[in-house]
Specification:
It is globular and about 45 Å long. The protein has one domain: Rossmann fold, CATH 3.40.50. The chain has a six-stranded parallel β-sheet, sandwiched between helices. The protein has a two-stranded antiparallel sheet with strand order 5-6. It contains ten helices and eight strands.
């Protein structure tokens, strides 16, 4: 059986995958959605620890796929590096990624970094409007606005600590079109093959069925030994 560990991006919680989880379970897979802490003193490495805990709960004989949305791309790659024996595939969904020492503030453009620093208050970054995640449907935007929560600034200033183990794990970068940031290039820069999906950054909310199908297809391709692009 396949277990998907679905890690939410900044400002989001495990509820971000609510529309994907039942579809994955219908396909015969398991899904685990860790809840990352959002306190002012939380750093990226604290989030990595939460994901490691989630990985350790997955059955050892399952094929475990580690999925990170947006900021969580950095988190899942470091978690995979620390538990390579537990991860069969890494998937980035519009995910930030880079080499050892990369972080949100080393990868993001200066305007983004300056805006985040200016908005931070008490170690937390206020949640942006739903429209900035591409969610424009009034009902969905209201649903999202109620759930978004301030995100710890330290997770953006921290940098990843990667060894070489993560580079031996196959990976796929799913990027949304039109792109808001160069997520396709981020994935290619770490040696992942890339797949496009039409939809907004919060594609798991707006287009859960096509995204779920891509996730299932990634697993099936991995089982057949599809080559990893570099």
């Amino acid at each position: 059986m396949t277990t998907f560990v679905l890690v939410p991006g900044a400002w989001h919680g495990p509820w971000a995958w609510d529309r994907v989880v039942p579809l994955l379970e219908r396909s015969g897979a398991r899904a685990i959605t860790p809840d990352l802490p959002h306190t002012p003193d939380t750093g990226l490495h604290d989030h990595v620890e939460q994901v490691l805990t989630a990985l350790d709960t997955a059955p050892e004989d399952d094929r475990t796929v580690l999925v990170g949305h947006s900021y969580a791309g950095l988190v899942v790659r470091q978690a995979a590096d620390l538990r390579p024996e537990r991860v069969h595939h890494v998937v980035l969904v519009d995910g930030w990624a880079g080499p050892n020492g990369a972080g949100m503030f080393t990868l993001a453009p200066d305007a983004f970094v300056q805006a985040i620093r200016a908005s931070a208050d008490g170690g937390l970054i206020p949640a942006p409007a739903p429209e900035l995640f591409g969610v424009t449907d009034p009902a969905d935007a209201a649903w999202l606005r109620e759930r978004l929560r301030p995100h710890p600034l330290r997770t953006f200033t921290d940098m990843t600590r990667l060894g070489r183990a993560v580079d031996r794990i196959p990976g796929t970068g799913i990027f949304c079109r039109p792109q808001t940031f160069p997520f396709e290039q981020f994935a290619k820069s770490v040696g992942y093959r890339t797949l496009a999906i039409d939809g907004p950054h919060d594609v798991m909310l707006e287009h859960p069925q096509p995204l779920t199908q891509l996730l299932v297809d990634v697993v099936e391709g991995s089982k057949r030994g599809s080559p990893r692009l570099s």
